[in-house]
Amino acid sequence: MTTKPLKVALFPQEIIWKDKAANIDTLIKLMPTVHPETDLLILPEMFSTGFVTGDKEEVRLLAERNTGKTIDLIKELAAKYGMAIAGSFIADTGGSLYNRAFFIEPSGEETFADKKHLFTMAKEDRVFSRGHDRMLVRYRGWNIAMIVCYDIRFPVWCRNKTNEYDLLIAVANWPQVRVDAWNQLLKARAIENEAYVCGVNCKGTDNYNFLYTGDSAAIDFKGKAINICQEDSDIIYAVLDHEKLDAFRTKFPAWKDADPFTLTDI
């Protein structure tokens, strides 16, 4: 059975620092403008708040459970517009805070995974607890993995063992001062894993005066950008072709020569 192409929309959202209501309103207003044939809309890391660290109790005020208003709204929008929505938000589970990735399908099916590699230079590790499992989702015939921001610097964590995923989603708040690394890492993860990579960064300025320029891209298995940018739109579109991916993996099966390993979480 032939797997249909996956039509993705990347939204390099301009995030307003700590203003959940405004950021969620941005998403609500965006949805009617997304192409109706889109299969998957990808939002940046912590799309509703920005990358907030600092005082843990202040951050806790922005956190929600998986059954909170933010995810309930995401479910409502995914069902209404017939597309999956992915991103991350600040989650509170059992009193611990997490930078939690979500993948919500139009059917209401939900998948969550917490960021593993916490950005110690911004003291993220002092506020959030780290995750232990990489997200893997089966959606419309595609195997999809998802990571959050700093995770992309760690190739072992992203390794595509025996082609377990076809698409790697990376969501981020990656500042302009280091954005060249972000752009190169997207390509590297695509090439070494023989998979598509969709990276979505945010725009705006945070309270530490870091500038975010929204560098986002869909990268194919050869490391080439396949973006379709439309005038008068902040959305980046791409069509991912499973047949081309399969053909390349057959023609150039580097994945068969990958080093076997077992990842032990200490």
Describe the structure.
- By secondary structure, the chain is an alpha/beta fold.
- It has a single domain, classed as 4-Layer Sandwich (Nitrilase/N-carbamoyl-D-aminoacid amidohydrolase), CATH 3.60.110.10.
- The chain is 22% helix and 26% strand.
- It is built from six helices and 14 strands.
- It has a seven-stranded mixed β-sheet with strand order 5-4-3-2-1-14-13. Strands 6-7-8-9-12 form a five-stranded mixed β-sheet, covered by helices on one side. Strands 10-11 form a two-stranded antiparallel ribbon.
- A hairpin with a 2-residue loop joins strand 6 and strand 7.
Beta content comes to: 25-35%
Mass-distribution shape? globular
**Which runs of at least 5 residues are low in confidence (pLDDT < 50)?**
none
Q: What string, H for helix and E for strand, traces the elements in order?
A: EHEHHEEEEEHEHEEEEEEH
Q: What oligomeric state do the depicted chains represent?
A: single chain
| Distance between the first and last residues' Cα | 41 Å
CATH topology annotation: Nitrilase/N-carbamoyl-D-aminoacid amidohydrolase
User: In which order are the strands of the major sheet placed?
Assistant: 5-4-3-2-1-14-13
